[in-house]
Amino acid sequence: MSEAKLEFLDRSRAFWNPGKTQDWQDMGVDLVIDRREGYYLFDMDGRRLIDLHLNGGTYNLGHRNPELVEALRAGSARFDMGNHHFPALARTALAESLAACAPSPNMVYTAYGSGGGEAIDIAIKTARHAMQKRKIVSIVKAYHGHTGLAVKTGDDRFSKLFLSEDTLGEFVQVPFNDLNAMEDALRGRDVAAVIMETIPATYGFPMPQEGYLPSVKKLCERYDALYIADEVQTGLMRCGEIWACMKYGIEPDIMVTGKGIGGGMYPIACTCISEHCGGWLKEDGFGHISTGGGAELGCIVAMKVLEIVQRPEVRTMVRYISDYMRSGLENIMAEYPDFFIGIRQHGVVMGLEFNHEQGAKPVMKRLYENGVWAIFSTLDSRVLQFKPGLLMTQADCEEVLRRVEIGIGLARDDVMGGHRRSA
Amino acid sequence: MEPQVRNLVDISGSHAALAGRADMVLERARWAAEVFQRYDRGATMAIADAVAAAAHASAGKYADWAVKETGFGVAAHKKLKNEMTSGPLLDFYRDDDYVNPRIDEQRKIVEIPRPAGVVLALTPSTNPIATINYKILISLMTRNAIVISPHPAARECSVDAVRALAGAAVDAGAPEGVIQIIEDPGIPLVEELMRSPKTSVILATGGTAMVRSAYSSSNPAIGVGPGNAPVFVDSTADIARAAKRIVESKSFDNSALCTNESVLITLQEVDARLQQALKQAKAYVCNEDDVDRLRRYLFHDRGFNIECIGRDATWIAQECGIRVPEGTLVLLAPITQIGVEEPLSREKLCPVLAYHVARSRSQAITQARAVLRLAGAGHSAAVHAMDERVAMEYASAVEAYRVVVNAPCTQGAAGFQTALAPTFTIGTGFYGRSSLGENIGPGHLVHWTRLAYNSDASEPFGNYHDLSPAFSGPLPEAPADGVPGSNGYRAERAGPLNESFSGVTREELRRMIAEELRAALRR
């Protein structure tokens, strides 16, 4: 490590976040991202990493995608954040673009946040207003963000620390893929909404069993609850369709998109609301206010993101990347069957499962040493999040597989010791 | 109210947007090319055959459409060209194998074909569909992906035709994106495509400016220059047949092909007979005044009048105020000079044939060289002679890489009435500032990796007869876990060189087989 980096890390500890800064050093990941371009990150000491983390799809279209940079640059010649009180050209235009590709024809309105958590809060508030009920059901180990309401739907690791966990029994969590538990939670008809990541990301992408999500939607209908689809990580073509819930045949009442919708260039998040649950927008349109929410420059970028991800070329490429990566990972899995034991996949949303409690951590470290940045799942350390970008080139995919094969081999030896059993 | 997708900030003309679009099309092509290289010869040819059949079936439809859209040429002739560039083109190369390795026991060399990857094909307005058919088929035969950039004047018929062929290819099992077309081919976008490192080779057919631009793009390019074919009718020629062939050739598709005869050169002793024979074949011999009118009409300060490209002889005569007999196929324009002072000695993509009488064979040859010096270097020439010494002398003098003998030049130079390779891209070689001097075919879209053994006799050559690269075909489809109908993953069988299977435990193998069986049963 360079002197400059050592000094910088001291400053990071001193002025930014001592805990987080140190944790990465302890995990053997001394990354300080400097330059970034396409799917490459360059550490401040110059080392190149291929980014398979993408901050949960924020960088779906690559870092500093030139078309998005240009949209932001050209947009700033006319727009700024805008005034959130007034009808606004860009906010309405993005709302129309979203309505035009929404998973349900009823989804006409968009309310804006400046980040995913805020948009989730809007979704929950909207559902509560529409149903005049308070209870929200989410999934055990769900992750919907860290704002006031969103944090209560997730793992209590993030709420208890701040004495912000639910104490009134308004937030209920049920295990994923468990329809009985879901029905039990809804049976009392006191639930305003079920909030559901189409594939729970931070939990390591456990995949919904066949029929699970449509059945949850049916249960919602039966027990007068709304269905909120959190498409922050699964949307925007990552599953081969603009919104993953469409692949499972779901028409949610409310949908949230964030991260990738801003293309990594301007933070913005959107809550898409169906006509039948958008009552507050008529009753008191000033009911939710956000100065930064739906900043118009963000809207300009987001419209470009939507246009790009819906190009036919992108659809084809997502399919190729999914197929190619899977094929390569299968070969690697066959090589280390005692360690690398499973692949969860829907499109370019992938989770690699390892046969050890903390298995994904050494893999992350070894991949990092070998020029690939992929992160373990915060809420399930057996699983490595493996998230190739939508526009990844064949050459880069091949490069990733080559490095992953080496990295997993080394991590296997770290965890299980010695040589491969089956070699 | 219906939501509208609106564009508040238009960046479509920016470099970022153009480069982004070019990149996306080419990257999709690269993916398709990568997967296509996994296909064996049977699968490859099945795709090419299906595409050829589709091209053949719609030859007439697109011939009509092209004539209507561009105003160039004769629909019946275009139909013929569209047909010739489908099945017959494929049949010409049927026995050539661009997929399997070649083994040379004698030299102890094995050659493995390596497709170019992504072919960027620029296609002209004069022969839009035939060129598209031809370029697509030579790309498919060699397992390349192709991106067509059509001439804007023939955009609509080209887009429709390519979409249909792309559909036929995918239906026959080709990787998606193996055939694409640029639907709005503006010059800045085409330049981005040509410049991109994702383009493997540019196959440029069209105007000089575009071809030169392809060459200066920094990418490998196979470009062709313009034609301006001299045709020499010698005193030893069968005059009647020569005249008939020349008229047939010059009127074919109204000279929209660049291989058409431009200047007929003959000798005094056959002048009268040849003119008579040409008249009989429905050529009209212009008088001095007619020639003047033609010259003024066909050439203005900016060059050739593109209005008359591919128009028929009677239409042009009428435009110039020349009275010609009904059914006239060619306008014969006698000229006394060849060179910069006589515009009629330049290329004319219409059925106007300049006619020059030389005093001797050697002068005729000198004049033929002058025609090609003016324009059309490296392209085509023709000779009609029964004396092969004349043909030899002529061919070794003119700076053209194909000299058609006793055949119509339009068809003959393009390989349709000779044994030359059938083509819609004529290599104009070093004379024409091009990289290749042959008729371009599939062979030019493949390079070969050569395994070369020690030539010392004590080092034995290996037995390569049963070895070939792992042709594993299309990639198995990745699962969409939890989506009804997504039946888990069927991994492909490991190839002969893939050792991963030996690393699998017996138990693992049993599990995989069981899984495969379950998946099969669920289908």
Overview of this protein structure:
Chain A is α/β, with parallel strands linked by helices. Helices cover about 40% and strands about 20% of the residues of chain A. Chain A has helices at about 5-15, 20-25, 55, 65-75, 90-100, 115-130, 150-155, 155-160, 180-185, 210-220, 245, 280-285, 295-310, 310-335, 360-370, 395-415; strands at about 35, 40-45, 50, 105-115, 135-140, 170-175, 190-195, 225-230, 255, 270-275, 340-345, 350-355, 370-375, 375, 380-385. In chain A, the strands form 3 sheets. Chain A has a 7-stranded mixed sheet, sandwiched between helices. A 4-stranded mixed sheet of chain A has the order 1-2-3-13. In chain A, strands 11-12-15-14 form a 4-stranded antiparallel sheet. In chain A, β8 (about 225-230), α11 (about 245) and β9 form a beta-alpha-beta unit. Chain A starts with a helix and ends in a 7-residue tail after the last helix. Helices cover about 40% and strands about 15% of the residues of chain B. In chain B, strands 10-13-14-9-8-15-16 form a 7-stranded parallel sheet, sandwiched between helices. A 5-stranded parallel sheet of chain B has the order 5-4-3-6-7, sandwiched between helices. Chains A and B meet through α4, α5, α13, α14 and β11 of A and α1 of B.
